[in-house]
């Protein structure tokens, strides 16, 4: 299997092959189609490698070179899990600049899916008609926020960010089968999936075919992917159920140990997501007595005394005593990665510079 065996694409109702895909995209007015043309020009050359860009959520964004055949092997694993059939319709509503968008193109090439490409927006369902049958739709959790009707979409794959408890509860009313993927650029998109609504819903992630997991002495998840030559060591703390399933707890570099108690900010943030109307995150500062002291950062102007009292009441209602942040800060704006994720460490440094 080489990448040049997969050069035909059914795109927005057109059947295109090889350089015809590039020429079609060059003449487009849609930025995502223009970017598709750039990607396909790289795909079609004889170089067995291609560059992909990391999001920067765990460090400085960078480009890494991967083998095109590895992208095809990743697509094959997803195809096997979801049982894609030739001619099924998939929508690409993610930017092709990052791995999730690139992999949707490769899945369409590999599985002969009919690809409908739209501009990435926060409301992708506005571009899908009520009577249009869509078999597969990858989205970010933000793109599914406040959606009450998934129309004729059969399967939705969420990725790029954790799912809050509030969003997961809302997803239970939606008709589409919804999955949350675990993965990163270095794993060439997701390597594990969790069903988050309906029949088969689980609290744990299950590995794609051929993938297995173990944890190191720091309790961080390590991943063996059959088409990647070296194990991938993550910074994610998990409860490993067996070599193919785990429950995600949070990132090791975010964990707070306060008074000897280990606290996971992502878990606390999920509890509060429905009650704080601004972007926020939980972090810590040093404390002589506790070691680390929880603090809550909100991207907003300073709350009034009444708003602050309401917030403190909500914290007491929804968090255990030891989980309640001792300090509340207001910082506007936060610092974000290019892909829209909060850069926690850099945003915390803004507090020190005030």
What features would you highlight for this structure?
four-stranded mixed sheet, globular, 2 domains, alpha/beta, 9 helices, 354 residues, GMP Synthetase, Chain A, domain 3
Provide a descriptive summary of the structure in words.
The chain has 354 residues and is an alpha/beta fold. It contains 9 helices and 20 strands. It folds into 2 domains: 3-202, ANL, N-terminal domain (Rossmann fold); 255-352, GMP Synthetase, Chain A, domain 3. The strands form 5 sheets. Strands 7-8-9-10-11-15-14-13-12 form a 9-stranded mixed sheet. The chain has a 4-stranded mixed sheet with strand order 2-1-6-5, with helices on one face. Strands 18-19-20 form a 3-stranded mixed sheet, with helices on both faces. Helix 1 (19-26) runs antiparallel to helix 2 and helix 3 packs across helix 4. The longest helix has 15 residues, at 68-82. The protein is globular and about 65 Å long.
